Amino acid sequence: MVIERFDVRISRTKLVVEGIGDHKCEYMIGSIIMVFDKTWKNFVAGISGGVVWVLYKEGTF
């Protein structure tokens, strides 16, 4: 589980995480992120040229 400010202003990363908190992937440029749980507020704000996949089994995301 990743907490605050994960992958903020980072370019060209490849990451796999199990759940993330607030303010994740902000201003991400060209990164690929896989999230295997829910996300919280301000998720992928300002993303540019990146890809994010979210698998949330609850289906409420």
From TrEMBL:
Pfam families hit by this protein: GXGXG
SUPFAM superfamilies: Alpha subunit of glutamate synthase, C-terminal domain
Tree of life domain: Eukaryota
Domain Glutamate synthase alpha subunit C-terminal: 2-61
A GO MF label: oxidoreductase activity
Protein name, UniProt field: Glutamate synthase alpha subunit C-terminal domain-containing protein
Originating organism: Physcomitrium patens
Organism phylogeny: Eukaryota, Viridiplantae, Streptophyta, Embryophyta, Bryophyta
